[in-house]
Amino acid sequence: MYLLFGLIALLSLSSAQTYKGYYQWTWRGPNSPTGTNIGIAFNGWITPASAVADSANVKGSLLGTKYIALGGGNNNGYWTVNQINAVNSAIVANTFQGYAGLCYDIEEGDGGLANAFEQSFSIAKGAGLKVLVTISHSGPYGIPDAITVMNKILASTNVDFVSPQLYASGTETTNDYTTSGGGGAVPWSSWKNAKAGILLSITTSTLWNCGNTYFTTTQGFPTSKVQGYIVWNNDSPSGSSTCAGGGSSRTTRCGSNWSDANGRCGRACNIDGDCTGDGGHCFASLSPISGCNAAIEETSATTLNHMGMTPTVIGLSVALVVVVLALIVVSVFLYKKSVVRQEIA
Fold first, then answer.
1. Angle made by CA atoms 173, 300, 316, in degrees to the nearest 5
2. Superfamily holding 2-231
3. CB 249 within 8 A of CB 180
4. Taking 70 as the threshold, does the pLDDT of residue 274 lie above it?
């Protein structure tokens, strides 16, 4: 009987440890999914004073453990050493009073920040704050040494949660498992041994089961490692969804820079090496382009280009084929003429 009660208690504890979070857009009114136990004030700012000011209107309504986000995928969220130092100073000055944790949104920034981030995480933990790090897909697309940064984050004992963003536009009805990272895509396999728990950033709560299955079954992550989710879409936090996914919207494409890749249907890619002849670099978290998908690419000129078949090479190849065919025709003609002469003789 005691064993039965103990088992029930253990199962209850296990169930209670599934985290259900949401990013509360500060420019919108409160709109949290049912059963939420993590609330993040998302403001898009990296400057502490701006982040705190913009989050003031939603701070009191956040449900569960309250976090404030710092950073984002734009110029206002661009990380530098000076910005990280400003965050550290704000932590020491108790600027984030009333929040239980900081959510570092790392998507764009300078290179060489891995150690600076780790120092900031340590300062936050020392001040009694929880640390949650959210990343664009598997690695920050706008940081040139993304692999180095991610290796440091995933090995950190100062990070409580890491959260891959499985979307690009934020309105997807499927999870996007595309890998990403400036200077080279970070493989999902590197996340498997993360010291921190993993919370999947998804557009709607209905995509949790799909994401959990993908990482624990397809990728083979320990079931205890993937501990919950954070919902992005405030317009439809529990909207419709499907488990089909994997980047069919082509949100990772080749280009010469992020804007170039974002503005056209470049070749699909995982690393810069896939982009020879098509801009030279692989960028993630791009806006989906209607009709730009893997099926089209297989029959497109960019595929030929990827194989080394540039327009010049294609032109020379066609010319060579024409010449060879012409020689064959002439040879056949001369052969037949020779045979006729021999028959007459």
1. 165
2. Glycosidases (3.20.20.80)
3. no
4. yes
